[in-house]
Amino acid sequence: MFSRSRPLLRLLAEIPADVAVVKRAFHATPSRAKAQLLDGKRISREILTELRSEIDAWHAIGRKKPHLSVVLVGNNPASLSYVGNKLKAAKSAGITSETIRLPESISQSDLLSLLESLNTNRNVDGILVQFPLPPHISERAVCDTVSPQKDVDGFHVESMGHLCQGKEGFYPCTPLGIMELLKRSGVDTFGKNAVVCGRSKNVGMPTAMLMHADGCGDATTTICHRHTPNKQMRAFVGLADILITAVGQPGLITADMVRDGVVVVDVGITRRFDSAKNAFVLKGDVDFEGVSQKASFITPVPGGVGPMTVCMLIKNTFTAARKLRGYKEREAAEESISDYDREIRTTIRLDNAQHQQHRSGIELYDQFDQQPHFVTNT
Ligand SMILES: Nc1nc(=O)c2c([nH]1)NC[C@@H]1CN(c3ccc(C(=O)N[C@@H](CCC(=O)O)C(=O)O)cc3)C=[N+]21
């Protein structure tokens, strides 16, 4: 009687036994496979090794090693740790560096004068002023005093303009690091739903910018921030194929909020005292244990985005050195284009041709002229 009124069931009953077993096994699996790690530590080591060989080759033909000047105001323990990582990475890639340590009480005008002198110092290729700064100093004034040619952080208003316009320039290290991490881990962003939580000028905003940009992430990108109602945020996060959180709030993202197979990039770093371990531990924004049961890829904290930020800084410093010297060579030879520019343009053409294979015919007409440099920097 059942089989007569419900033909579908009769059909199912006819499925060979081995297929039915496979089907049941799939649905009844008690615990899902764990996500694959987006291993920033390993990938950043790979990149630093590549940079090392490029920098060695550059140095071997008589050029000075690239030089990074780091300015550190005060004694913030997190800043000391991050700057330490940056200097270590510089050394491993064959970049020389110096840390200029200044007291918390330094005036803004003294700090700006120091930056002016670094701007004109021919031995300096890249300048980084570690944030946060004490409240009496304007971070914007500091960013805009660093010469755009040496702005390896990508925080100068001119660099930000280039990023927003899709022009060649220095892009901030964390967004670059995220794009590189996804690319090298085989995560395709093209046409996907990306959700960025956090809209800071140095991380959230530029990350969303690269994620959505033509010729770069090409994702449909949503930014959630402090004024996004909780219910809305849940709705957006639930739609994300790629979720990037840069908020600094442990436990913000839990397993019930994300969809199966989501790619999770956790930029949050909060230092918390763990009484069981009797030590400070680093926490991301994501409940790693829970979310990694549903995600296809996930970054650990530490060992995810942090090391990628550091190696992109080294990459930007090498780029700054090549450009600074390139321009000098061009002046000397009165050429209209430096070897470096020529090399970059060739690379863009090749990469862009590959990228365009994804595109539909209508979109093909003017991509090269509009968006070349995203490819260069990712
Ligand atoms: N002008 C400026 N440029 C920056 O790029 C900049 C800044 N100011 N201020 C602070 C943020 C944060 N940031 C990090 C760098 C390295 C790690 C890093 O190496 N993290 C390790 C662990 C670090 C640790 O153990 O303390 C990891 O995640 O595995 C993290 C965060 C750069 N920032």
UniProtKB/TrEMBL annotation:
Residues 172-323 form the Tetrahydrofolate dehydrogenase/cyclohydrolase NAD(P)-binding domain. It catalyses: (6R)-5,10-methenyltetrahydrofolate + H2O = (6R)-10-formyltetrahydrofolate + H(+). It comes from Hypsibius exemplaris (Freshwater tardigrade). GO terms for cellular component: mitochondrion. The keyword Chaperone does not apply. Residues 38-153 form the Tetrahydrofolate dehydrogenase/cyclohydrolase catalytic domain. This is methenyltetrahydrofolate cyclohydrolase. One of its GO terms (molecular function) is methylenetetrahydrofolate dehydrogenase (NAD+) activity. One of its GO terms (biological process) is tetrahydrofolate interconversion. Its EC number is 3.5.4.9. Homodimer. It is an enzyme of class 3 (hydrolase). Keywords: Hydrolase, Multifunctional enzyme, One-carbon metabolism, Oxidoreductase.
